[in-house]
Amino acid sequence: MSRICCLIVALLLPLAVSAQQQSFAEWLEELRAEALSLGISAETLAALDGIAPLERVLELDGSQPEFVQTFTRYIDLRVTPGQIARGQALLREHEGLLGEVRARYGVQPHYLVAFWAIETNFGSVTGGFSVLEALATLAYDPRRAEFFREQLLTALRIIEDGHIPAERMTGSWAGAMGQLQFLPTVFRNYAVDGDGDGRADIWNSLSDVFHSAANFISESGWRGDERWGREVVLPAGFDYAEVGTRNLKPLSQWRELGLRTVAGEPIPVADMEAAVALPAGAGGPAFLTYNNFRVTMRYNPSVFYAITVGHLADRFTGAAAIAHMPENETALSRIQVTELQELLNSLGFDSGEPDGRVGSRTRAAIRAFQDEQGLIPDGHASLALLDRLRN
Questions:
Q1: Residues of 313-331 as b/e, b for ≥16 C-beta within 10 angstroms?
Q2: What is the pLDDT of residues 87-113, one digit of tens each?
Q3: Helix or strand or coil: residue 170?
Q4: For residue 91, what are the domain limits?
Q5: Using CB atoms within 10 A of its CB, is residue 334 exposed (0-12), middle (13-18) or buried (19+)?
Q6: HSE value, Cβ hemisphere, 13 Å, CA-based, for 5
Q7: How many CA atoms lie within 13 Å of 280's alpha carbon, on the beta-carbon side?
Q8: Per-residue pLDDT tens over the stretch 23-71
Q9: Residues 46 and 195 placed together within one structural domain of the fold
Q10: Residue 84 · residue 92 · CB < 8 Å
Q11: Which of 297, 245, 298 is nearest to 274 (CA)?
Q12: Are 187 and 111 contained in the same domain?
């Protein structure tokens, strides 16, 4: 917060004290007062009695995995023969309900079940944290206090409205709830009472789970007559500057550039825009991604995630495995990524402040270095690239 903002807050709220200066008990009493002013009852607020910051939540929030997960590892953990068979069985078991949901929202059943699989292993792993306690922990922490305070107040409103008792409102350490892991504000905006019992129970009612997920996806722009994307083969001499989820072109242009299906045929053409994604660099598979891929990234803004959801949905319908998975893909540690960024910066390729994360700025710096070195400019961070930079 700037000094000017601090001065304004001090003038307007002379008795207010920042979360960093307050004890948790003082902070919680201030939150109760705000909740009461918003119309949340004292009965609901009794659910806050006795809660305390959860050290495990702070550990999980602050921890970073030692290694950056590779695309190979990511997808192999989530798209397995067992998961495919189970998803196919559940599609048959819930055919009637999923058909009803499709008729209302236009979201194909195999995609809904893929989201369900990836988010919570078909509802079996929804998180064992008290959502109120987890959100209170994160809202008290000053780093993202405003965001999580809104989530906490919204969670209290969900309880007030009778959707779920406080003791049954469980979820992830970050407050994502239910079988498709909605944050409270997503629940507020998109949750649906699918079974007509007056509550949107995304924890226990599959009707509510599927109606709510489909409503969110549909409202985010899902097109029920389109797929998410497809694996393709790039032509010799392909310009890798064309890669990236923001580099949209009509399918006709991609076809003119020589992209082909994995069977070697020219890609089909429709009135659609697409972008090329290379989750493992030039040595791995290439995908043409469509509108529904971009909608999937509203659920989780990860290329790995969006490809995995789409591919798993394809496998439920009998599609083949990805044809061009990389061999011996090696994960970089965050220390190695930081070193890579430092080396790029030292050579005049601006990758930003070294932080061990491969973002758009680092990928742009990698592409510039690769281009200068006569390498394929795919922007992919790899151990071979790090060795090249070292030498």
A1: bbbbeebeebeeebeebeb
A2: 999 999 999 999 999 999 999 999 999
A3: strand
A4: 76-120
A5: middle
A6: 3
A7: 22
A8: 999 999 999 999 999 999 999 999 999 999 999 999 998 776 677 789 9
A9: yes
A10: no
A11: 245
A12: no
